[in-house]
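Revision sheet: structure tokens.
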Amino acid sequence: MVKLQRSVQSLLESDIIKPTDSIWKIALLYGDEWQYWKQELLEFGFTMQDPISELLSVEAWDEE
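Predicted:
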């Protein structure tokens, strides 16, 4: 998830997405990898309607 978070932060800094955009918007940029990332996000309790800023605000991921 840290990898996704860094990639999304980079997209944000490049003005490709905005912090207020919904998470589903990044699906368009991830193509074949999106199913994997979507499942990961859902397991962490995110919905595709959550703003990207919520994904970026996570300071530590409890990945086991």
